[in-house]
From TrEMBL:
This protein's name: Holliday junction branch migration complex subunit RuvA
Lineage, broadest ranks: Bacteria, Pseudomonadati, Pseudomonadota, Gammaproteobacteria, Lysobacterales
Keywords, sorted A to Z: Cytoplasm, DNA damage, DNA recombination, DNA repair, DNA-binding
Annotated compartments: Cytoplasm
Molecular function GO labels: ATP binding; four-way junction DNA binding; four-way junction helicase activity
Name of a matching Pfam family: RuvA_N
Organism: Dyella monticola
InterPro entries: DNA_helicase_Holl-junc_RuvA_I, Hlx-hairpin-Hlx_DNA-bd_motif, NA-bd_OB-fold, RuvA, RuvA_2-like, RuvA_C, RuvA_C_sf
Originating gene: ruvA
Length: 198
């Protein structure tokens, strides 16, 4: 079981990260809430992890805050929710906002997250209402840019599509929110807010 990694951040191409620990490169998937908080590539980073083993694959997920990992693990316990959907939830709302939506029974807001239909939202509320108390604070300040090869708008577009948004919707969102000087993380954050109507 791998519970934590500390090493050098080699690359970040949302939702994928590569962290080198003792000469070994670990590939992880992470929600946008974690990616916002990462340092620039080449810097040291410490991530909490969730190690998942299936019959045909092994996967490692990284989180900057314990509240994110706890929310991810809680979501995986909900019937019909897999890792991709759990990451989309954490990318769409902060852990604090997610807890608030669940406690309020806000089905409509939850269904605005890619991969969450009405029935799934209702299951999340029923199954997690008693588990989300005190789950951490919201997203912290944005990290420095990584110098990724794609331009910020293109990088944001790829990341949003990987989170489950349709290409046409992504193009509309990115064009709507992107401003000169924005980095990819800023564009992604503004696009997610626009998609969720907040």
């Amino acid at each position: 079981m791998i519970g934590r990694l500390r090493g050098i951040l080699i690359s970040k191409q949302p939702p994928w990260l590569l962290v080198e620990v003792g000469g070994v490169g670990y590939e992880l998937e992470a929600p946008m809430s974690t990616i916002y908080d990462l340092p620039a590539t080449g810097k040291e980073v410490t991530l909490l992890t969730h190690y998942a083993v299936k019959e045909d694959s092994v996967a490692l997920y990284g989180f900057f805050h314990e509240a994110e990992r706890a929310s991810f693990r809680n979501l995986l316990k909900v019937s019909g929710i897999g890792a991709k959907t759990a990451l989309a939830v954490l990318s769409g709302v902060s852990t604090q906002d997610f807890a608030r939506l669940v406690q309020a029974g806000d089905v409509v807001a939850l269904t605005k997250i890619p991969g969450i239909g009405k029935k799934t939202a209702e299951r999340i509320i029923v199954e997690l209402r008693d588990r989300v108390d005190g789950l951490g604070v919201g997203v912290a300040s944005l990290a420095a840019t990584s110098g990724a090869p794609l331009d910020p708008a293109a990088e944001a577009t790829v990341a949003l599509q990987q989170l489950g948004y349709k290409p046409a919707e992504v193009s509309r969102l990115v064009q709507k929110v992107a401003e000169p000087g924005d980095n990819a993380e800023t564009i992604i954050r503004k696009a997610l807010r626009a998609a969720l109507g907040s």
